[in-house]
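Please predict the structure of the following assembly.
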Amino acid sequence: MVIVIQCADKVGLVATIAGLLQGQDLNIVSMREHVDGIQNRFFARVEVSKPVEAHTLEVQLKAVLPPDAQVIVNPNPVKRIVVLATKEYHCLSDILIRNHFNTLGAEVLGVIGNHSTLDDICRRFDMTFDLVSHEGISKEAFEAQLDKIIKKYRVDYIVLAKFVRILSPSFVEKYPLQIINIHHSFLPAFIGANPYKQAYERGVKLIGATAHFVTNQLDEGPIIAQQIISVNHSYNSSDMVKAGKEIETAVLANALQLVFDDKVLVYQNKTVVFD
Amino acid sequence: MVIVIQCADKVGLVATIAGLLQGQDLNIVSMREHVDGIQNRFFARVEVSKPVEAHTLEVQLKAVLPPDAQVIVNPNPVKRIVVLATKEYHCLSDILIRNHFNTLGAEVLGVIGNHSTLDDICRRFDMTFDLVSHEGISKEAFEAQLDKIIKKYRVDYIVLAKFVRILSPSFVEKYPLQIINIHHSFLPAFIGANPYKQAYERGVKLIGATAHFVTNQLDEGPIIAQQIISVNHSYNSSDMVKAGKEIETAVLANALQLVFDDKVLVYQNKTVVFD
Amino acid sequence: MVIVIQCADKVGLVATIAGLLQGQDLNIVSMREHVDGIQNRFFARVEVSKPVEAHTLEVQLKAVLPPDAQVIVNPNPVKRIVVLATKEYHCLSDILIRNHFNTLGAEVLGVIGNHSTLDDICRRFDMTFDLVSHEGISKEAFEAQLDKIIKKYRVDYIVLAKFVRILSPSFVEKYPLQIINIHHSFLPAFIGANPYKQAYERGVKLIGATAHFVTNQLDEGPIIAQQIISVNHSYNSSDMVKAGKEIETAVLANALQLVFDDKVLVYQNKTVVFD
Amino acid sequence: MVIVIQCADKVGLVATIAGLLQGQDLNIVSMREHVDGIQNRFFARVEVSKPVEAHTLEVQLKAVLPPDAQVIVNPNPVKRIVVLATKEYHCLSDILIRNHFNTLGAEVLGVIGNHSTLDDICRRFDMTFDLVSHEGISKEAFEAQLDKIIKKYRVDYIVLAKFVRILSPSFVEKYPLQIINIHHSFLPAFIGANPYKQAYERGVKLIGATAHFVTNQLDEGPIIAQQIISVNHSYNSSDMVKAGKEIETAVLANALQLVFDDKVLVYQNKTVVFD
């Protein structure tokens, strides 16, 4: 049973929380707390030994915490997600495999593609695939179709598994901190078209990937996880693309596990990851 | 200000601790807690915002915690250490550099060598070097000489920086969880003489190193940190030794920083590392 | 077009090889050569710019090289493999996905399981799955059944993707350096039943995995690749198993890519990996 | 004995080189060759078993290779270097230690600082330290003083060990591919003042460092080596600086070893690293 809390910091918050839990005979088996001294923000993740009625405990905790407190008592034993993808199979396939064998920590309700390429792999896992083409229609109309399907699933998170359409601010605002993206960010990051070609021409020795929440604040939202993979002079541009796919798959899997385990807290444009 | 606690687990320990700190108007800026459910053991590390009188707080905490509680209120802003070495320079030099520039997180009171090889590098840093040769005397007499010097320094920790003499159980018992060693452990570990030659002959692709506390319980005591470095077919046995030294230096530096920051708690033969 | 050569070393081998290639107007776009001075063994991997008739070039090279020379001129543009598995899905699924999307560098002809567990995932990829139960029959009879199926496929390699039966020396001898296994080797390696429990009890900070060829010479054959993953005190025994699976999948995928690209040469119990 | 060659590519270069070496009864114990197909450029590094007269072999090789061929026959068994630094001790100290114990693969002839801070650590190693202040004089005059000292040492390489003055194009042109710098490059790279503060505010999970040759072509010259280190939400800006120093020290040491072993070839703005 996991409890995640963030609020404005003040003296005595841990005592308040721990006291309330003790009063219900709940043993704290693992606790991590962090105060961002610059933002004056309190973050905590608590694992307790016994299951409790989630909503009741949330109400009780909010009653004793600062008014801005966000309290989540393990709302979904298994998170509900939808995956958006385009043509590349690597991230989606990894998610489908884990979902199929019940090791994802979430349930994939459906997959939406803006191309039909990945219909087949979904079908093989008896996974609903909805084709929503962006061609010939406005972004507004495209996103309205996406939204209609997503709403139907009542999801906790939307995972962009190499979905290459840029989502509009109005769409993103509907799902605050619920959209997770995997970005092929190089080191250093190359902006613009064909980043792998630029990386090749620059002769980098590492390439990386970043999993992050999608927001409208910055070019990229709060970073959840980053990893790199070594490359060398023998890698041509397409070898770098291939290496990039390996690391994208690994980083997204890692980030999703952290999020689904309620280990990622977000404030402003940064994450606190209690890994 | 850091507070480190371990004791038998029971419901309400966090509340008890946090309540006591709140009563003294201390804000918890960072807290990590872990319960080992199998050993029924509670571990916590708390950073509070203001300095307090250490001994008083220790007494107050012990008064409200289970009778077996070990409570450390940041006893030494800077830890006092002595380093034991033999002939290899890499770990000792790294420690001397960090000590010299005050970034070690500890103060090196002196170095003891069982060979005179490293006298020179110590002298260059105005560091006391005591030669205690093991030759021609019993282990008992050798260790009595070591102990006499160490006692004089009143140290918190004894760091074995490639010290190749095996310490006797009676010596180790005098410094429980105060002796830190760096071990050239391979993956898989090779037992016996010339482990690098064995690693070479086995054709391993990784070699590693382990920093651990020295105890008499097992062949190796509680592990603090481990790292590896990649090797390949072009490495001969002495190249592996060289790569091993790089990783030994890095792992020991990392382990010492964790220990000096009071981030390592030990119970039975295992560590809890709040890194 | 790849040429792989190993033989006893002597002066002039590179000149001999390069001269012969030049005589056929073949440009060497990449070459790696290594001499094991202790074994007096020459290893080379050469990539040339144009395709040639493989068998003819092999004959020509053997004619000018020492009599013990092993020469392989890229015999199989795509390697043919069979996968043996038991119950665990992680390595097999990763192979099936890559095979399905033609990025494995090999073609999976079929999967053989000694349990029916993985029949379903194979079926989803239209992959032939043969159940060969080991129960109630002798090892000899069991392996005869395996062998009959494998023979039918005329494979280059047999991949043991978490296949838990020990293969007999007589079976292994039929497929010299053709059987690749993934081993959950810890650092240090724990022998015997339940290695993860031992790793947990020892409090290791790293766990690893090793991909290797299966031979009868040693407990493990020539190592192809090894990787590790960090763990900490918060991992219980089953968390370690889970982390182990992630690294097993990654190491096996890496090792297979190296082998299928003809980048792994073996001599005695060691590999030369021209990665 | 190492031979390093680069030139325009054509069929038969390996045969030409190997034939010439065979004619002198030289056995090739290790060879790596790479052709950049896009640049049509040939790179090779050859280790032979016996020492030879370097200049003679260079002349012989150039006589049979394309006219643009660069041939280096291990010109300096031990490279001669000078180190430029400012105030930070970490990279310089690591170099001084390795130099002192003869494991650097190069000889440090002297250290030049634009502040007096690092005079003391040099003195402790009996290392010449020249203070060349940039204050109150033009960049031209400052660099003229640097150059006068460097010329005196007749160095192979100039290592910028956290030297914070930007060198002018005219200075850099005098030492083509002889100046090696360590750069605190983040992932993604942050431009401008106080990159660590930006990295902190962006909430990155990795920070990195890049060792590269200094050229006037781009903001950074050819990359030799890059590494990263993990950070998390508990790192404030100065913790990131500290972690950055660890990785800067490691990357620079690694890059220097590669360069001093003649394993790094440069063409245009990229390196070929035969590691």
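The interface with chain C takes residues 9-19, 21-22, 25-35, 37, 44 of chain D (CB under 8 Å). Helices of chain D lie at 13-23, 54-64, 90-100, 119-124, 139-153, 169-174, 195-202, 237-260.
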